[in-house]
Amino acid sequence: MNSRRLTQISMSVLTVVHLVPTYFHGRDHANLEVGLPPGMAWFVYGVIVGLPVVGTLILWTRWMNTALGIVTLSFVGATFFGIYHHYVMVSPDNVFHLPNGPVEFQVAFASSAGWVAVSEGLAAAVGIFWCGVAAALRFTPNRNG
């Protein structure tokens, strides 16, 4: 299997894997009634959910290198956003400062935030790796790496 196909498959799998904890974390936000201001909501739906999905679909076209950059940057941005909002900034979105609610909802929120961070960080790292491979091989849509 060539590097182009491995890139497409690995990033597609990581995008799908990322959507699972992201879905559950969104549910956990609703359960604890932790809303997002409009700017944050735009970032979550646009950059954390939308760009990886759209970029992953484009990975399978002749614009693979551009799509790889988009997907990788979205996961890098998502990783920093999630770490900052869930672990650094003091707010109801921080796993150490959650609003009152059933303990099982708080545990689920903290757990899903951790899984989201792991999935985003892993996808960002793998994307950075494949960007490096693409740059080293300078592969094009018509040439195998």
Structural class: mainly alpha
SS field, number of helical segments = 4
User: Strand share of the residues?
Assistant: under 5%
Low-pLDDT residue intervals, each spanning 5 or more residues: none
Shape: elongated
Rg of Cα set: 17 Å
Helix content: over 70%
**What is the CA-CA span between the terminal residues?**
10 Å
Can you describe what's shown?
With 145 residues, the protein is mainly alpha-helical. The protein has one domain. 77% of the residues lie in helices and 0% in strands. It starts with a helix and ends in an 8-residue tail after the last helix.
Name the descriptors.
single chain, 145 residues, 4 helices
Describe the secondary structure blueprint for this structure:
Blueprint: H1 3-32, H2 38-59, H3 64-88, H4 103-137
Helix pairs in contact: 1-2, 1-4, 2-3, 3-4
Provide a quick synopsis of the model.
By secondary structure, the chain is an all-alpha fold. The protein has helices spanning 3-32, 38-59, 64-88, 103-137. It has one domain (3-137).
